[in-house]
Amino acid sequence: MTEKKNNPCADGTCRVPTSQRLQTFDTSADSGDIGALVSATIDEQEIKVPMGTTILDAAKSLGIRIPTLCNHDDLCIAGVCRICVVEVEGQRTLQASCAYPITQPIVVHTHTRKVRQARRHILDLMLSEHYGECYACFRNNNCELQALAKEYGVDFFRFGHPEKPRHTIDNSSYSVIRDMDKCIQCRRCVRTCIDLQEVGVLEAVGRGKDTAIATYLDKPLGDVVCINCGQCINRCPTGALRANDSTDEVWAAIDDPTKHVIMQTAPSPRAGIGEEFGLEPGTPMTWQMNTALRRCGFDMVFDTNFTADLTIIEEGTELLIRLYKNLVEGDGSMPVPQFTSCSPGWVKYIEHFYPEYLSHVSSAKSPQQMFGALIKTWYAQINNIDPASIVSVALMPCSAKKYECNRPEMCDSGYKDIDYGLTTRECAQMIREAGIDLPEMPKSEFDEPFGTATGSGIIFGATGGVMEAALRTVLELVTGKKVEDFYEHADIIPVRGFDGCKYAEITFPDELGPVPELIAHLVPNWDWLKGVTVKVGVAHGTANAKKVMDDIKAGGKFSQCHFIEFMACPGGCLGGGGQPIPTTPEIRKARAKAIYAEDKAYGEAGKARKSHENPAVLRVYGEFLKDGPCGHLSHKLLHTEYTPRGKYIG
Amino acid sequence: MTTIMNDITFSTAEAGAGLKAALEKGRADVIGVVRESAMRGRGGAGFPTGVKWNLAAGAQGDKKYVVCNADEGEPGTFKDRAILSEWADLVLEGMTIAGYAVGAAEGIVYLRGEYTYLVRQLEDALEKRREAGLLGENIQGKDGFNFDIHLHMGCGAYICGEETALIEALEGQRGEPRNRPPFPVNTGLNGCPTIVNNVETFAWASMILAKGPEWFKGIGTEKSSGPKLFSVSGDVDKPGVYEFPMGITVAELLKNVGGGGAKAVQIGGASGNCIPACEFSRAIAFEDVSTGGSIIVFGPERDMLKVAENFLEFFEDESCGQCTPCRIGNTRLLEGIRMLQTGHCSMKYLQELCKLGETMQLASKCGLGQSSPNAFLSIVKHFRNELMGRACVMVCK
Ligand SMILES: Cc1cc2nc3c(=O)[nH]c(=O)nc-3n(C[C@H](O)[C@H](O)[C@H](O)COP(=O)(O)O)c2cc1C
Ligand code: SF4
């Protein structure tokens, strides 16, 4: 059975109306039956399932396929598309198998005449309202509606087909484009936004034929409290939601011989891009992708893990400064807990929903933006390249990165620090368009000087990864010992895994090391940390972020934390809104496995696994950011500030 | 304007007799009486009221609710308005009896938005009952029986008359039907056991307690006991609210209301069925032609295609828009009607639309989509002559 642990419908915290939820059962009347099994006979096969199992899940475990559209493993049950209807003996009408919990023995038929007719008609009805030609759609060959049309042998438009568009495309957002002509009103986006992400910018409005999915007062997406996480894109069955694609601009830069085009690649795309080429989820393509990108025409291919490591140094230093100020100097101007800042979806979320807590957010830029600032300054300098001729592209698992690189404050190099953010999907598209079969590419390394990364950089892609990387570094800098002395293989297991909100404590020993030279000018000694218990939290998916924030507001255990990692997307970046479609808990788990395997491989190959050991990072501080982490120049280039936006829109 | 009415039993009700009789009995016995009467819900679906109350009484919950469905949105129905105007106390009494029977402390009247003019009157009635100790704590000296009723206004959506959509609306959500099971008797308002009954159902319940189940069972048919109120409109001499025993034939009913010469009668409102003259001997009862009380009579001059168009226009707007068969299906059926009107519908396409109607009946999420094609289908079936002239006999599409 599919794991629905992080499904808010399952843990009882969801906010969607009851009409869009699987109802819970009052089994107390016959409490003897709790956990009891009931028998279901589906297409002549019998099975015993726990009370309350849906017909859909029961059929699945028998290997019987029932088509679905509005149903999604991450979301509450809606039961609205009706494509999954089946015949239940003794019932006058057909029943939606996704929403029908089995509580007494039943006999089900999944493909009778009535069922087949109903499914055909439902598809025909959807197609009668679905404007769009499959060959001119980014979801061509990866569209659930198209796939069902094929499965059910649709060969003509029984109830007609719209000939012209009826809606204007909303491309106001840097991140998410809405094309309502392709919407089939399955409401997955609505449930994603309100339930999985606790944002709630999308809702069904109107009634009858005028029902539509809309924003507040139908405002453009760019003007509402959308956090750009793109989770709705990943769950849209059709092409109604897509990312704001910049591949044309990137191709144009590559085609322009006067431009020096640089690609940096984040850790998560390499764990996901294989899916775009038919590989099993969790097949890493790191080294093949380097070759493919060069063949596409990028002049340089760098590893964003380099700036992930740099982020750890900057953010970790900031944390130590915050702790020193709070614990020793009693200066609360930089409050704890410190919140991470690398997820641009999370940053926009807190700007809208908890602006009063912005002083908790680390001022360190995200790895993408740190990279951008360094490329158009130091890298240009040492290579004698005019920064104006550099086009800096970032391959990210993320749609919010597109918004982030267009923030007006992100021009500290004197230019737009990052020109374009590409999603994993768009990158795969470029590679395909260049006629390259990614899995068959020979392997190659990243380019210098930003080619050396560590295992800590790579785990940024998974929820808990930033925290683990930070803890590895802080532990070593403070204790002077090896992380391995505390955690086997330096794997800090308590912060790993897919639990929505994680909490962990680490107590420093009474023996601490000397303050390392890199930050010696910032704190005199570590005496004040002796025997101190550091408390940390990790939350992924903004619904979980909300839980942690509300706990902090209420003075709960997370308010006692020193450092909290927040990621906007479920699973962390590996489940980002720019990753290949579909997404399920299983797919995200497989990607996480690939990421942790790569971290492990760094260790096995004798390469660094801790950010502060990254030689390229040390070189940057030696040659360029000479006043050290959180120093003057690093503040100018690598740190930023935030905008309290609030959630009330004019 | 006063509504024409015949003799309606509610006029003979003795104030407070039902509640008094109920409070002299144990809770289970009250439900027993209602079950014994075999009354089926007066809102349209015809679910046995005693069974519903019994389920709610047996369900576990911190709180329980009694909801009176006064949304009366079905086109051609206005008998609940008449009941609330003339005999509101009987309804409130019935709700109080239900509260006692199922163990609820809170009752809610969900009142149709267009009936706002009744609010003052109903609030006064509630206040008087509170003053008389008929609502509030330890009602009529019955220790521990606390029950009060408040009003909740609808906002004009027909779908909010559907009981689970009504509950969503009470919770402050978009009025959209829920997945079932579980049913409101187990998991209703705020997740608590809830009974939703029609205005008329509560009024009869009150009288059943006062006069005994045998009296009620002695009227009507075996499967559809008791008298029933009908809202009669259309091409008749005397449109109005009428009480007839269940099981009355269409012909008899027409005779009573001056509907001679009708060519068809729409029974059960827009979501009901259209009965042609040749079937006027059929009985209006749950076992034959069922209805929540709406009777719309069509005289010989009526264009049945126009009738179907009118109903489908209603559904195209009033579908909650949640599920595919209903949201899009009604629009396609309406387009089909318009194609017929202009002679652009092939027989083949008409057949396809009839099959679509069947799909809507089978696959829609709630009663609205499941019954919205009824009128279309029965008109196509019974008035083929009227349509044939307009269907394009050649396969033109
Ligand atoms: C679309 C739709 C609209 C309905 N509207 C009403 C209504 O206005 N009044 C009503 O009493 N029942 C209405 N019902 C029936 C209710 O869902 C429910 O069955 C009824 O209130 C139960 O009460 P009863 O058992 O006393 O008839 C409607 C049902 C549907 C599907
Ligand atoms: S059948 Fe119609 S009214 Fe009922 S849930 Fe579906 S769309 Fe809504």
Count of DSSP helices of chain A? 19
| Major beta sheet, strand line-up of chain B | 1-7-6-10-8-9
Strand content of chain A: 5-15%
- Share of helix of chain A, binned: 25-40%
Largest sheet of chain B: 6 strands, mixed
Q: Count structural domains of chain B.
A: 3
Gross morphology of chain A is globular
- Distance from first to last alpha carbon of chain A: 46 Å
Structural class of the secondary structure composition of chain B?
alpha/beta
Report the CATH topology name of the largest domain in chain A.
Fe-only Hydrogenase (Larger Subunit), Chain L, domain 3
| Distance N to C terminus of chain B | 50 Å
Q: What number of structural domains do the residues of chain A give?
A: 4
Total helical segments of chain B: 16
Assign an overall shape of chain B: globular
Radius of gyration over C-alpha positions of chain A, nearest whole angstrom: 26 Å
* SS-based class of chain A: alpha/beta
Order of helices and strands of chain B: EHHHEHHEHEHEHHEEHEEEHHHHHH
Tell me which protein chains meet in the greatest interface and how many residues each side has.
A-B, 47 and 51 residues
Per CATH, which architecture of the largest domain in chain A? 3-Layer(aba) Sandwich
Mean pLDDT of chain B: 95
